[in-house]
């Protein structure tokens, strides 16, 4: 098979290979008892071959699907030419977390959804290539990151060290502002730390990205609960911050509100994953974190978080691990890749099933889930067909661990502690989606606290837009002060 040469000296493979290069993965049977990363990453040759599938469109519509506007065409071309350092620099112009995004971004609904190859074959594996470039950069020392030469006098407070907060902090530090990130937990990274398991996102990667921000001059204050330890009003007055960005996420769990939900061994997905990830329950017995070691697990829900929970329960020793979901496979919210890997690892899927009660033993521990089968009726407000219970179809599913993964709502602490900060009916801070501007002067917000639970990359996009607006806000104020002194 001969390659054809295109303008600029790059080699492009003939378009007779319709499928993206498969991601190498660890053996499914070995994965059941291992917390090592499942996806192993492309080799150099696999990455170059995949990059050469790209048509290098004159109008790269794939970039329109990226919330942080990564120059996808340019970095993919650099990979095709084996210019990996150039590819890394190109990505980092717009994305400070490429190793994270290359692992967890739902690219099938974003950049890859727009790829023109989708009309007749697989889209280019943009996410896999981004991960390859980020990993190559890490393995080869990366680029030197330093604080900006010009420092501005203003101080900016970032509340929350998740993807929105880290992105806003990076962009503002690059402009020379004094940035402090306030984090309620003892470890940094927000949902990247507590919500995503080690086998999908090694925490060493999060640590390295935080170190990059430290090198830029960003300061981090851990164990600070804004709304309790200190308020936004105090930040803007007593502590001298000119602007505040709120990126506290959506960590407030949603429950079923059925009998037995308060039994021991019944967790919200947030609590379960926090114990496993942040508190190192995955590293037992080195860390003796209290979490139920199941024989039979039941996870309620079928989104990305549910897949994380069921796969964690398998690694914690579950002989059977069930996903219980009230709709069908078609309506599941999980990424196809994670769903397929859960199947490979032995997860059992009980579709068209809804829990009605949790049953406990004499010691107050959950022992089973009482369920009823459903059938799908007309679409509801979500656009999906409404599940309707089937009379007489009840049954009992044995389970000594239950994880409720039905979504989350915004954390209410900051809005409750901040007078004049408007929220909507769902508890989200009301903010301009283009600027992050809120009802309070000098207070900006973005990410899940404004939208409800969404994706890492969407939160990063919100952090970036808010950083731009904060810079404009501060420069405008500075200009007004200068005029007043004339």
In short:
This protein is of the alpha/beta class. Helices cover 32% and strands 16% of the residues.
Question: If you had to describe this structure to a student in words, what would you say it looks like?
Answer:
By secondary structure, the protein is an alpha/beta fold. The chain has three domains: 136 residues, Alpha-helical ferredoxin (Fumarate Reductase Iron-sulfur Protein, Chain B, domain 2, Orthogonal Bundle), CATH 1.10.1060.10; 173 residues, FAD/NAD(P)-binding domain (3-Layer(bba) Sandwich), CATH 3.50.50; 152 residues, FAD/NAD(P)-binding domain (3-Layer(bba) Sandwich). The chain contains 17 helices and 18 strands. Strand 1 and strand 2 form a beta hairpin. It is globular.
SSE layout and pairings?
Layout: E1 4-5, E2 11-12, H1 28-31, H2 44-51, H3 72-80, H4 84-92, H5 98-104, H6 111-114, H7 126-139, E3 155-159, H8 163-174, E4 178-182, H9 191-194, H10 203-215, E5 219-221, H11 232-236, E6 243-246, E7 252-253, E8 266-268, H12 269-277, E9 296-300, H13 304-315, E10 320-324, H14 336-344, E11 348-350, E12 353-360, E13 366-379, E14 385-389, E15 395-398, E16 401-404, E17 408-409, H15 413-416, E18 443-445, H16 448-451, H17 456-484
Parallel strand pairs: 3-4, 3-6, 4-5, 6-18, 8-16, 9-10, 9-16, 10-11
Antiparallel strand pairs: 1-2, 7-17, 12-13, 13-14, 13-15
Helix pairs in contact: 2-3, 2-7, 3-4, 3-7, 4-7, 5-7, 8-17, 12-13
């Amino acid at each position: 098979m001969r390659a054809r040469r295109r303008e600029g000296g790059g080699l492009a493979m003939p378009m007779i290979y319709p499928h993206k290069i498969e991601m190498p993965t660890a053996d499914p049977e070995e994965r059941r008892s291992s917390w090592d990363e499942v996806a192993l990453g492309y080799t150099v040759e696999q990455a170059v071959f995949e990059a050469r599938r790209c048509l290098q469109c004159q109008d790269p519509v794939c970039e329109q699907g990226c919330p942080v506007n990564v120059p996808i065409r340019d970095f993919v071309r650099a990979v095709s030419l084996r210019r990996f350092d150039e590819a890394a620099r190109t990505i980092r112009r717009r994305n400070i977390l490429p190793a994270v995004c290359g692992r967890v971004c739902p690219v099938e609904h974003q950049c890859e959804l727009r790829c023109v190859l989708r009309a007749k074959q697989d889209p280019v594996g943009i996410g896999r290539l981004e991960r390859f470039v980020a990993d190559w950069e890490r393995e080869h020392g990366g680029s030197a990151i330093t604080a900006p030469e010009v420092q501005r006098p203003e101080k900016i407070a970032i509340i929350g060290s998740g993807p929105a907060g880290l992105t806003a902090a990076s962009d503002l530090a690059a402009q020379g502002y004094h940035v402090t990130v306030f984090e309620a937990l003892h470890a940094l990274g927000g949902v990247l730390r507590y919500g995503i398991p080690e086998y999908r996102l090694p925490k060493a990667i999060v640590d390295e990205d935080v170190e990059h921000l430290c090198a830029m001059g960003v300061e981090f204050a851990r164990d600070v609960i804004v709304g309790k330890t200190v308020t936004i009003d105090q930040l803007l007055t007593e502590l001298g911050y000119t602007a505040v960005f709120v990126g506290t996420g959506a960590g407030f769990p949603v429950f079923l509100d059925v009998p037995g939900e308060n039994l021991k061994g019944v967790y919200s997905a947030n609590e379960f994953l926090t114990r496993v990830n942040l508190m190192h329950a995955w590293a037992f017995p080195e860390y003796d974190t209290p979490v139920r070691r199941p024989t039979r697990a039941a996870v309620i829900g079928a989104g990305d978080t549910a897949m994380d929970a069921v796969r964690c329960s398998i690694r914690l020793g579950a002989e059977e691990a069930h996903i219980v979901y009230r709709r069908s496979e078609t309506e599941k919210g999980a990424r196809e890749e994670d769903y397929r890997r859960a199947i490979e690892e032995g997860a059992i899927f009980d579709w068209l099933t809804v829990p009605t009660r949790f049953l406990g033993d004499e010691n107050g521990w959950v022992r089973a889930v009482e369920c009823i089968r459903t059938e799908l009726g007309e679409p509801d407000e979500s656009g999906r067909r409404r599940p309707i219970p089937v009379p007489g179809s009840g049954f009992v599913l044995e389970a000594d661990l239950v994880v409720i993964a039905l979504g989350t709502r915004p954390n209410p602490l900051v809005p409750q502690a901040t007078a004049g900060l408007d929220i909507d009916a769902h508890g989200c801070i009301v903010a301009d989606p283009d600027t992050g501007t809120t009802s309070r002067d000098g207070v900006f917000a973005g990410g899940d606290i404004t939208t409800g639970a969404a994706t890492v990359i969407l939160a990063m996009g919100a952090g970036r837009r808010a950083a731009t607006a904060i810079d404009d806000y501060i420069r405008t104020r500075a200009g007004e002060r200068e005029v007043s002194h004339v």
